[in-house]
Amino acid sequence: MTTRLLRAPLAALLISLCLAPVAVHAQADAVVREALVMTESGRARQAYDMLEPLEVQRAGDPDFDTVFGIAANLVGEHARAVMALERATQVQPGNARARAELGRAMFAVGDSKSARVLLEQAKSQGAPAVAALTIDQFLRAIDMAESLMQSTWRGYVSFGLGHDSNLSSGPADANVAVPALGGAVTLAANAVKQGASFGHVAAGISGRHVIDSRWSVIGSAGYNHRINFGASDFNNSQLNLEGGAAYRVDRQEYSVVAVHENYRVDGATNRSQNGLVGEWVYRINNQQEAGAYLQYSNLQYPGQRQRDARRVVGGASYAQQLGDGWLAWGGVYLGSEHEKAANQPHQGHRMGGLRAGAQKTFSDSLAAYASLNYERRNYGGQDPFFLAQRQDRQLSLGLGLNWVPVKSWRVTPQLTHVRNQSTVVINDYDRTTLSVSARYEF
User: Which of 28, 36, 118, 295 has its CA 20 to 30 A from that of 426?
Assistant: First the structure.
C-alpha cells in the first residue's frame, strides 16, 4: 500500500540527501567512508553486509550509525535502520541527515506521525534547498497515504437458490448394524440421506476504525438463513459476530478478535461457539502473501451437553499471483476438540488438514475457481454403540464462477461435493450441493 505510493518520493529523497553534505565527522574512518560511497553508487547491499557484523562493536558511534542506517533503509531493513538512526540522533541532535533517514524508516514501519515530526525537524535544521524540497514531497506523500487509512465499512446482501443431495449428512442406507444392540436397526427418516431444493438469504457488514497508522479496531457481523423446500426440519440459520483489534507494522498485520457464532436448526439453537482468533498476515509483495492463525473456541450443544468441547486449531497459509490472471493458495492446519464430559472420550478428536485452490481471472467481470480440502479426524475412544474407534477422512471439492454483470453485483454459480469416509457407518456419507447466488455489495 504505502510502499507503492512512496516509491518515487523515497528515491528522490535519497538522491537529494546523498548529494547534500553528509553529517559525519571529518575523522570518520575508512570503513564508514567506503560504505557511504557504496550507498551513493547503488551498492547499498554491499554496504549493509559490510557494516552489519560491526554493529555491536560500533553502536553509539554517530558516523557509523548514520551510514549503517542509510544502508539499512535502502535494503529494506527498516527496523534495523530505526535503531541505528535513533542512536545517531541521540548523540548528534543536529544531524539532519540522520533525522531525515529516521523519518523515512519510521514511516516504513508504519509510524507516520513520528515520521512527519522527524522530517519537519530535519527541514528546520537547515537541510539544503533541494533536500528540503524533496522532504516536502515526502510529507505530501504521507498525507496521501494517511488519507487512504481512514476508517471504512462495507456491507452486503445476497440471495440464492440451490439443491442439496444430503441435508442431514447421513448414510444412504437406513438399515445399519449396531453391535451394542445386538443387530441391525432402522434409522429415523431425518437421519438418512435426503435431498431437497433450498433458498437462502444473507446479509453482513464489516468495518475498520483507524486509531492511528498502526492500530485499528475491527469488527463484522453476518447472518444467513436457509429454507429447505419440503424438508422444513432442516431449515437453519447462522449468526456470526466478530470484534477486536489489529496492529500494522511495515508489511505485517497482527489481529486478535473475539468470535461468537450461533447455529440454529428448525428454530432452535443446535450449536453455539465463543472464542478468540489470533492472526498474522505478511504481505511479502504485491504478488505474495503468507499468514498464520491460532483459534480457541468453546463449543456448546444445548440438549446434547455430552458433545460440549474446547476446540484449538492452528494453521498457516500462503497465496500468490502467478501471472496471466492466475491466483493460487494453500494451507495446512492442526487441532483438537477436547470433550468436556467425563468418560466420553469418543466425543473428542484430533484433526489435521490441507487446503488448496486456484482462480483464473478472464476479465474484469469473470473469474473461475476451484478448491480442494482434505481433513483427517481421529477420535479419542471407542463408540459405545458401534464398538469401533471412529476415524474420518473427509475430502471436499468446490468449483465455481464469479461473474460481475454490473458494478457492485456478483453472481456465483457453485458446485460442491463432500465425501466423508468413516469407520462408524452413520458418519459415512457423501453430499453434493449446486447453487446460484447473487450478492450486492455496498
Answer: 295
